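User: For my dataset I need records formatted as: sequence, then structure tokens, nothing else. Please produce one.
Assistant:
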Amino acid sequence: MSIVSLDAIALASRLIDIPSPTEEERAVGEFLHQELARLGYSVRRHAVGDSRFNLYAAAGGKPRVVLNSHIDTVPPWFASRVDDQYVHGRGACDTKGVIAAMIAAGERLRAEGNRDFAFLLVVGEETDSIGAKSANIEFAGLGSEYVIVGEPTESKFARASKGALTCTLRFDGVAAHSAYPERGDSAINKMIAAIAEINRADWGTHEELGKATANVGVVRGGEKPNIIAGSAECEVMFRTVADPAEVRAKLERLAARFGGRIVAARGNPPQFMVVPKGAPSTVVAFNTDVPHLGNLGKPLLFGPGSILDAHGADERIAKRDLLAAIDVYYGTVRQLLGC
């Protein structure tokens, strides 16, 4: 298959058919390395741990604009399927279709002599953004002016995105025989009461970003049904509209009322991105690698497909949207380069 032929649909399908759940990105990274090198890009691997790597591929000039997306996906993997309207498969919109459109746009740029750009394809976005965080240090001296981050934004530039804060709460109780509950103190009951309060609480509102949300997505606790639970934990993720430190402080106070405490936390503040003049824009609630690529220049966030189709049992991307995105990436890079 030749990427030069601008068959972005075929490239997207090929990428989908290489499973790359987070921490298992090596095979798709090797494929992209070979393809980009074959096209004539100067490609280097940036190690992220023992067996994982980011890819940096320079077009030959000064990398004033960096086109970035991630090569990992959520599980479970399922193969590509193409019909009249859509490309289906794990990673179709998040973000293998995006990568295919970016590479096709790069070929158009190079065909007319524009080489002041590069690709940065990273691992780990779906979990801890370790690829982006490492790349932000490794390529801090690149001299790039803009970084275009590819995510499924429904073919609109995102002018803002909510922040994120993920916390693990631990509750301690007193274990006892369940036939004598008065001898114990259930950590699970404490956790349930705290979760109810988390769901009732107001976590903030912003004029542009809207209302903050909270989701308790993981709960753990107890040992056996005949034992009063001596410990319990839950993991909660906030989509924040203010400083995550403020949300964390409020959560700490709330948890303490129920005998709980925060034992782990990570997050980033809301982000505000560049929108090309005259381009349609939107606000997104999901998190991206944008917060972790600050050394690479002013951020833009754009991609074909919908986040509502990502991570699902029938992830897909409309073929017409994928092909239209080639024009957008091409035109945006030209505009940023002043062509």
